[in-house]
Amino acid sequence: MESKRRRKNPEAMPKKGILERLRDGVVIGDGGFVFQLEKRGYVKAGPWTPEATCENPEAVRQLHRDFLRAGSDVMQALTFYASDTKLENRGNKAGQTFSGKAINAAACKLAREVADEGDALVAGGLSQTPTYLSGRSKKEVQVDFQKQVQVFVDNNLDFLICEYFEHVEEIEWAIEVCKATGKPVAATMCIGPEGDMHGVSAGDCAVRMVKAGADIVGVNCHFDPSISLHTVRLMKEGLERAGLKAFLMSQPLAYHTPDAGKQGFIDLPEFPFALESRICTRWDIQKYAREAYELGVRYIGGCCGFEPYHVRAISEELMKERGKKSMATEKHDLWGGGLLMHTKPWVRARASREYWENLRPGSGRPYCPSMSQPDEWGVTAGSQVLMQHSEATTEKEFKELANHAVKTRSRK
């Protein structure tokens, strides 16, 4: 009934803003969209661009709704990689059909529609650009950002997120553009404990993000919950040394990545089509939620691999702190309690917290290693192989890349 009233008259019950919510308690983010939609046939692996907001809006809408039901307090509009330059990079045809403006506007509309079915906020997101990786100027890169941000402002989104940046310089430029709108700004980098790709430490990255204007700082993507929280801890220490304050945010992968190098899971040979054996269980995510909360993180969500049941796990672990439970918990008794109704006695015997907390899941893959050797090519912004161009990768270029990969592996 409450959600129906809000849809009819959104102004009747104003929602608390993101900074107010973080001051008062915990905010639960959503999960991964492009990986989920790729598996379902709505996103193309490789470019990972979100033209699905225009081509298949119902698929995007339903995923938002699943995360809302699981306990998400934020509907992050599906604007990842939706800059005009990314839509046209390396043979991507999306930019020939839809403009970045159209994709971003559709994403804002879908996120707002579902957010207003509950008490969720809507955020628009910027991510790294081919323009920066090609070594272009600050002015050129910020033009890319300004085009997207204008759509977020036109749709009156509640706050802005700069996420998935490997270089602190680029995220500083993104934060500056977002801060000029007057809206709250969250900033998360896809880095691990070693810092950004140009050697800036995690602590210094946090300091620079706050000085650029970010209200919320942390990490997203590239690494698992454990490694991500280690990085957030280093960020927190850096802020404390500098005498700066900001809310902390964590949105890691739902994949175990203890063997990943500096650039995270994209260096793993399983990326992106064979990561399933690394998926975190819901119990792994409950542990993550508790550790994040105890570290002082108050914006807790997930990125690639995070499904609605992972978000529900966060909600259930922090139910006492939040004073509420998600709608999805109605179909999920805590710690496997519903198994008491199972017909098999040995399954009924598993209906306890002790059982699931102490379980060590098997992979079911005989003779497979528990960890992999990451590729670690060591290329970053300005490298020739990262230069932006609209033409598709040629057969000659592919052979050169494949030969380089073989040589790199043979040296390890």
Automatic annotation (TrEMBL):
Note describing how the cofactor binds: Binds 1 zinc ion per subunit.
Amino acids binding Zn(2+): C221, C303, C304
InterPro entries referenced in this protein's UniProt entry, alphabetically: BHMT (IPR051524), BHMT-like (IPR017226), HCY_dom (IPR003726), HCY_dom_sf (IPR036589)
Superkingdom: Eukaryota
Gene Ontology molecular function: betaine-homocysteine S-methyltransferase activity; zinc ion binding
Named cofactor requirement(s): Zn(2+)
UniProt entry keywords in alphabetical sequence: Metal-binding, Methyltransferase, Transferase, Zinc
Pathway involvement of the protein, from the record: Amino-acid biosynthesis; L-methionine biosynthesis via de novo pathway; L-methionine from L-homocysteine (BhmT route): step 1/1
Residue ranges of domain Hcy-binding in the record: 15-318
BP terms from Gene Ontology: methionine biosynthetic process; methylation
Gene3D superfamilies: Homocysteine-binding-like domain
Listed PANTHER family: BETAINE--HOMOCYSTEINE S-METHYLTRANSFERASE 1, HCY-BINDING DOMAIN-CONTAINING PROTEIN
Full protein name: Hcy-binding domain-containing protein
